[in-house]
Amino acid sequence: MNDAELKQQIEAIIDPELGRSLGALRMVKSVERVEGGAVRVTVELPTTAYPEPERFESLIGEAVGGEAEVTIESTVRGSNSGGTIGLKIANVICVGSGKGGVGKSTVACGLAYALKASGARVGLMDADVYGPSVPHLLGASGEPSVSELAGPDGELVQRIQPLEVDGLRLMSMGFHIAEDQAVIWRGPLLHRTLTQFLQATDWGELDYLVIDMPPGTGDVALTLSQLLSLSGAVIVCTPQQLALLDAIKAISMFNQVKIPVLGIVENMTGEIFGRGGARAKAEELQIPFLGELPADPEVRLRGDAGRVSTLIAEDSPVNDQLISISQRVAIEVARQVTSGPVLPDLEIL
Known about the structure:
This protein is an alpha/beta fold. Helices cover 32% and strands 24% of the residues.
């Protein structure tokens, strides 16, 4: 076959995760013949967290019917989630739940670190203003500094410098109040604070910003949907029916504010709460099941000690599960970016 037919043959390969051709996904970066008749192909994946990328070697070899030298590159594609506030963030992912006590913050932290481990640039924002738990889980303390940086027109503007914990940029209300201090605010103050956390923070250029949402169906999701073009939401719940009932409400909330639901994570799976409830509910609602995390006491111990970042270490009992969940989330985000329709503007009634 000639060069044009060769490229067409390779671009016709169906991506095993996204279910569309490599040509339609613009994943074939280059195709060339090398000495000896072999084919050299460069494939550019839409996320650094693509599962088992080595599969493309055999897929391309079969397509060309011979030897193929395959180079895999990764560039995180985004939906330009900076919205109207000018952030340089490719994708914003919300992690929410219908109720508290399901381990949502632990999952949000684990997801952020797993995405970072894949090679992505990642930030984590704790949007639970009334009960910020991310600083404790990460063993982070101190107050973010403020610097003057050049704005788009050359003027000096003040920017909050997020704390960095194990390479992860972090912002939380917990850095601005005492550990035992209660936040007693009405909605407008909450909206103003979240806007400042996003717009006035020097996040830099990020591939993913993970936002740990407060539990329930309050107005934080509404605020975020007005400020940003969110890539989607991850729902965390435990297997028992009571948690699943509240998770359904969270899914309904995200649907109403036009935030795509990326899927469900079942947390604390095991003898105490059971297993499989979230998977069954995901199948019923026809949304992706992203994976499960066991109710292992080591997870609690590391969280209490402020060492949640080590949950992706080799000695972690949930390392494989967190990496798998992060890959599934990244693929669902890539699916939204590469094939999802443009969402309509949110109408506030």
